[in-house]
Amino acid sequence: MSNKSRYQKVEVDLPSGRRFLYVGSNVRSALQELMSNMSLYHGVRLSEVMEAMYEQGLKDGRKEIIERIDRIKAGVNYLPPGRPRKRKPR
C-alpha cells in the first residue's frame, strides 16, 4: 500500500484572498494545464468561476448539515430532566 493521499492540497489565489482546495490528481492536472497557457482575461474569468463554485459549496455544505440536524431532532423524543409528576388519586 502507498502512503500517498488521494487528495492533494492546491493553493488558489482569488481576488478575495487565497483558498486552499483539496483535489484529486485529475482535477489538479486539469487546473495546472489551464493555468499554464492562460491570458490575464481568462485568468480573471476562471478565478471568478472558481470563487462562485467555492461559495456555493460552502452554502450547500451548511444546508446539508442543517438538514441532518433537523432529521436528528425529529427522531429524538426529548423529555425534560427531573422526577416525574405525581398523579392525583381518583
Main attributes?
90 residues; elongated; 2 strands
Strand % is 15-25%
Low-pLDDT residue intervals, each spanning 5 or more residues: none
Tell me about the largest β-sheet: 2 strands, antiparallel
Please, how many helices? 2
Oligomer designation: single chain
Q: Terminal Cα separation, in Å?
A: 73 Å
Order of helices and strands: EEHH
Q: What's the total count of β strands?
A: 2
Assign a percent range to the helix content: 40-55%
Mean pLDDT: 81
Rounded to the nearest angstrom, the radius of gyration is: 25 Å
Spatial sequence of strands, sheet with the most strands? 1-2
Structural class: alpha+beta
Structure explained in plain terms:
The chain is an alpha+beta fold. The protein has a domain at 8-69. It is 53% helix and 16% strand. It has 2 helices and 2 strands. It has helices at 25-36, 40-75; strands at residues 8-14, 17-23. The chain has a two-stranded antiparallel sheet with strand order 1-2. The longest helix is centred in the middle third of the chain and has 36 residues, at 40-75. The protein starts with 7 loop residues before the first strand and ends in a 15-residue tail after the last helix. The mean pLDDT is 81.
